């Protein structure tokens, strides 16, 4: 699978569970904007053949190299950032994994059970909407979410783009993230306000915002059905660094808050 086909398939799958993304893109297009993607994000468990070590080999197939790494201790996560060297107009990839051993024993047992069907290694095709797990029961899902909202989300949504990201620098009629946020609020898109709607500062060289995830109906292993969070849309504006080039990395404090876009809502 080449890079263009991968991202095209990824987008089609993403908007099938994230209708707000299609709506927001249409809204921006009506404003005369040309929407480009800053990065996509994925989630996984730290399981042999499906963790970040495999991911690094996998994305290399479409030209990506790791350029930074991050840890999120309170969420029991670590992550790698990938880019295509010397091609800053190509979307970056942000890939995180849950460190299962840091969760309580009950949560680890649930994860072991639902991931028992995993065999072999993660593939690019899997990232485009593959559900490779045994479905959790509603009780297992609730217990996982209580221990880690990230784990609960992954247990039901599987492998797919967790979010795409509008490159605010590429917009023409909206020259700041503030103007974009005003437009989204005016059109009643719910936003993640953890740590403030706009996360990061000019001195961080990156400011971001995100919607709250859409919801989809999910049937659990024991036959119960419930609405669960699916995916969300992010927005990023990058400032130039000391070299005069746009900053390409991520800010852990901001990313930590953006993870909560897929938390269950009261």
What does this structure look like?
The strands form two sheets. Strands 2-3-4-1-5-9-6 form a seven-stranded mixed beta sheet. Strands 7-8 form a two-stranded antiparallel sheet. Helix 1 crosses helix 2 (19-30), helix 4 packs across helix 6 and helix 6 (138-147) runs antiparallel to helix 7 (149-157). The chain starts with a helix and ends in an 8-residue tail after the last helix. The chain has one domain: 2,3-Dihydroxybiphenyl 1,2-Dioxygenase, domain 1 (Roll). The chain is 32% helix and 22% strand. It has nine helices and nine strands. With 266 residues, it is α+β, with helices and mostly antiparallel strands. It has helices at residues 3-17, 19-30, 52-60, 105-114, 124-127, 138-147, 149-157, 177-186, 252-258, and strands spanning 37-45, 65-72, 77-83, 92-98, 163-167, 206-210, 215-219, 225-229, 232-238.
CATH class, named Alpha Beta
Quickly count the helices. Answer: 9
How does the overall form come out from the CA principal axes?
globular
Catalogue the unreliable spans: none
Compute the average pLDDT: 96
- How do the helices and strands follow one another from N- to C-terminus? HHEHEEEHHHHEHEEEEH
Helix content: 25-40%
Briefly note the structural class of the backbone.
Answer: alpha+beta
Give the strand tally: 9
Compute the number of structural domains. Answer: 1
Distance, first to last CA: 40 Å
Rg over CA atoms, rounded to whole Å, is: 18 Å
CATH-scheme architecture: Roll
- Biggest β-sheet description: 7 strands, mixed
Q: What strand line-up does the widest sheet have?
A: 2-3-4-1-5-9-6
Instruction: Tell me what portion of residues adopts beta-strand conformation.
Output: 15-25%
Q: Looking at CATH, which topology would you report?
A: 2,3-Dihydroxybiphenyl 1,2-Dioxygenase, domain 1
């Amino acid at each position: 699978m080449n890079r263009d086909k991968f991202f095209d398939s990824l987008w089609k799958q993403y908007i099938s569970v994230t209708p707000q993304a299609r709506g927001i893109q249409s809204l921006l297009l009506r404003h005369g904007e040309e929407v480009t993607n800053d990065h996509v994000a994925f989630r996984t468990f730290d399981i042999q053949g499906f963790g970040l070590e495999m991911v690094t080999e996998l994305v290399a197939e479409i030209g990506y190299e790791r350029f930074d790494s991050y840890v999120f201790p309170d969420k029991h996560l670590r992550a790698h950032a990938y880019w295509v060297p010397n091609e800053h107009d190509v979307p970056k990839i942000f890939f995180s994994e849950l460190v299962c051993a840091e969760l309580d024993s009950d949560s680890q047992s649930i994860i072991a059970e639902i991931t028992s069907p995993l065999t072999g290694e993660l593939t690019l095709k899997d990232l485009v909407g593959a559900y490779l797990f045994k479905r959790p029961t509603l009780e297992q899902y609730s217990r996982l979410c209580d221990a880690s909202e990230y784990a609960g989300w992954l247990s039901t949504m599987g492998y797919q783009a967790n979010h795409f990201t509008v490159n605010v620098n590429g917009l023409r009629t909206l020259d700041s993230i503030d103007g974009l946020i005003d437009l989204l609020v005016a059109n009643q898109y719910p936003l993640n306000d953890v740590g403030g709607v706009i996360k990061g500062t000019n001195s961080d060289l990156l400011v971001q915002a995100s919607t709250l995830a859409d919801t989809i109906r999910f049937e659990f292993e024991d036959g119960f059905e419930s609405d669960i969070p699916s995916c969300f849309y992010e927005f990023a504006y990058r400032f130039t660094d000391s070299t005069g080039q746009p900053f390409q990395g991520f800010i852990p404090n901001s990313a930590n808050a953006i993870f909560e876009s897929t938390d269950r809502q009261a």
